UniProtKB/TrEMBL annotation:
Any one of the GO CC terms: membrane protein complex
Gene3D superfamilies: P-loop containing nucleotide triphosphate hydrolases (3.40.50.300)
Name this protein carries in UniProt: ABC transporter ATP-binding protein
Keywords for the protein's UniProt record, in alphabetical order: ATP-binding, Nucleotide-binding, Transport
Taxon lineage: Bacteria, Bacillati, Actinomycetota, Actinomycetes, Kitasatosporales
Database matches in PANTHER family: ABC TRANSPORTER RELATED (PTHR24220:SF685), IMPORT ATP-BINDING PROTEIN (PTHR24220)
Record bears the keyword Nucleotide-binding: yes
Molecular-function GO terms, alphabetical: ATP binding; ATP hydrolysis activity; transmembrane transporter activity
Length: 269
């Protein structure tokens, strides 16, 4: 008789926030108004999955992503990358963590215009002083084929289409083999075909390369590329869909709109 199979071990989330509160603005003397952008959000971003964050405009999507990725700090609550709590890190460690464990893709591509495609892609390794690492070189070389940029390696970003530039940004985000890639509206500046290519690429990074992706989007078609969708409204987590379809996401968004989300709670300070 064969030995019983061990119970599957639940994999720790790649990133998570617990009781996350973010209040912008307000003054000690009460002369301004404070905006509660996150109002007690707890959410896991599972390792090896593609999660989309959706919600009406102003619901707190970008704030959640920025705080989860250590680009901004929470007013209260905690944010973790793996087991590392970001609030416990000083600026230097936070910078190192972002560089070594997180990849970023932004709507505006954010490539360095004076560097070639190849140089842009290897920038994270260069900054980390890891140039020449053979494993890294092989990984980066494979990435170039995955993103389909082999014949553009010596061009500069200004010589590429928007879709090609965003593919460079995706390759750069993956180059350091980060624990998690955060993408903020990565298809926001692209036509639908280029957007589809970038989304397929992010999906492939998860499904064939074992990476973890968290993406903010307002587009139900983009969200349908994810494994999971989490919905925010008024800075609160209000829903979750697994294996989403664009229609399913749209229906859920409409029901959020019907709830008459009143927008940010403005709290006189
Ligand atoms: N730096 C800031 N100072 C003050 N208020 C801010 C700041 N950044 C965001 N907010 C407010 O916090 C709330 C949430 O903003 P956030 O950008 O996270 O929402 P979002 O869901 O990403 O919106 P959108 O889809 O329109 O980009 C909004 O009311 C916004 O006006």
């Amino acid at each position: 008789m064969s030995a019983p199979r061990p119970a599957p071990v639940a994999q720790a989330p790649a990133a998570r926030v617990v009781d996350a509160v973010k209040v912008y603005g307000g003054t000690a003397r009460g002369a301004g108004t404070a905006v509660t952008a996150l109002d007690g959000v707890s959410v896991d971003f599972p390792a090896g999955r593609f999660t989309a964050i959706m919600g009406p405009s102003g619901s707190g999507k970008s704030t959640l992503m920025h705080c989860a990725a250590g680009l901004d700090t929470l007013t209260s609550g905690s944010a973790f990358i793996g087991d590392t709590e970001l609030g416990g890190l000083d600026d230097r460690r936070l910078t190192l963590l972002r560089r070594e464990r997180i990849g970023f893709v932004f709507q505006a591509f954010n490539l360095v215009p004076t560097l070639t495609v190849a140089e842009n892609i290897s920038l994270p390794q260069d900054l980390a002083g890891r140039r020449g690492d053979r494993g890294d070189e092989q990984w980066t070389d494979a990435l170039v084929d995955v993103v389909g940029l082999r014949d553009r390696l010596h061009h500069r970003p200004g010589e590429l289409s928007g879709g090609q530039q965003q593919r460079v940004a995706v390759a750069r985000a993956l180059a350091g083999r980060p624990d998690v890639v955060f993408a903020d509206e990565p298809t926001g500046n692209l036509d639908s075909r280029s957007g589809e290519e970038v989304l397929n690429l992010l999906g492939r990074a998860v499904r064939t390369m074992g990476r973890t992706v968290v993406m903010v989007t307002h587009d139900p078609v983009a969200a349908a590329h994810a494994d999971d969708v989490v919905f925010l409204a008024d800075g609160r987590l209000v829903g979750h869909l697994s294996d989403p379809t664009a229609d399913g996401v749209l229906d859920r968004l409409k029901s959020l709109d019907r709830r008459g989300a009143p927008g940010r709670a403005e709290v006189p300070s």
